[in-house]
Amino acid sequence: MKQIPVYHVDSFTSEQFGGNPAGVVIDEVGLDDQTMQNIARELNLSETAFLFRTEEGAADFRVWYFTPTTEIDFCGHATVASAWILATEYGWADKADKVVFETNNGPVPVEWAKQDGKLEAVTMTLVTPKVRDTKLSMNEAARMVGIPVEEVDDRYPIREAFAGNWHLLIPVKSRAAINAAQPQLDDLDAANRASGISTTHLFTFDAKEGYDLYTRDFAPAVGIEEDPVTGAANGALAGYLYLEGILEPNRSHQLTIGQGDAVSRPGTLFAEIEPSTPAPVIRIGGRSVKTIAGVLHLR
Question: What CATH class is the domain 2-111+287-298?
Fold first, then answer.
């Protein structure tokens, strides 16, 4: 019987039972796709990351990400959770400044920030961000996410954005409108599948004190009704804000993003945007908390 370490980690929070829970499974050899899918379904978290040691290129681990229903190319909060576990449970932060994960989209380096020898946060550098037009009208987008069309903030464009996965970004006028959203999940599922999109991401600058943005994320196309706090989607949002000229160009930006309040799992992300050509460099960071550690017994 094979025994494999498994962790349940709350990401983008310093409080247990907040943020976004992720599964982290670490194995030296590797598992086949069906076994990984079965484990992700058994853990029943929004995403589970599977880490396998590798010596290919500059990467330290090959990582695969699975929701309970499907494989996805990238998951931000599970990446943060994985780096946190490697630092705190396996001593990686004591022997290196970063760990490099090889994903379906290429390498993702994750750095550790320590103070007085204690881990304070981890920060991942995402793949190059991109934006593209969407076929959805404002009326259709508002209907599918369940907000009045007058609550869509027409100062900013509705776009599809990428920083590891594609996301539909919808600007909203107020945090109250985002919290009151009643998404039509079947319609979102169909529309997102048709466009090759992982999630639909609502955002507003009407954030609570101490935050720059507030967001909410729906992902029925990958088997998740609502993802509490989303690293990949907020990374795509950071890229969109810069590429669309919403943020001042040719200078660095630091943003604090809040998410998860609507599902009683508040979390905090830190986004760094560094000007570069042809696209900015996007970094997303935060904290994590280990809540469960155990062993998988595989026959």
Answer: alpha beta
Specify the pTM: 0.96
Q: How confident is the model at residue 61 (pLDDT cuts 50, 70, 90)?
A: very high
Read off the tokens for 277: 């050509």
Domains 2-111+287-298 and 130-285 belong to one CATH topology: yes
DSSP state of 282: E
Give the tens place of pLDDT for each residue, 190-225.
999 999 999 999 999 999 999 999 999 999 999 999
CATH superfamily placement of domain 130-285: Diaminopimelate Epimerase; Chain A, domain 1 (3.10.310.10)
Residues carrying an active site annotation: 47
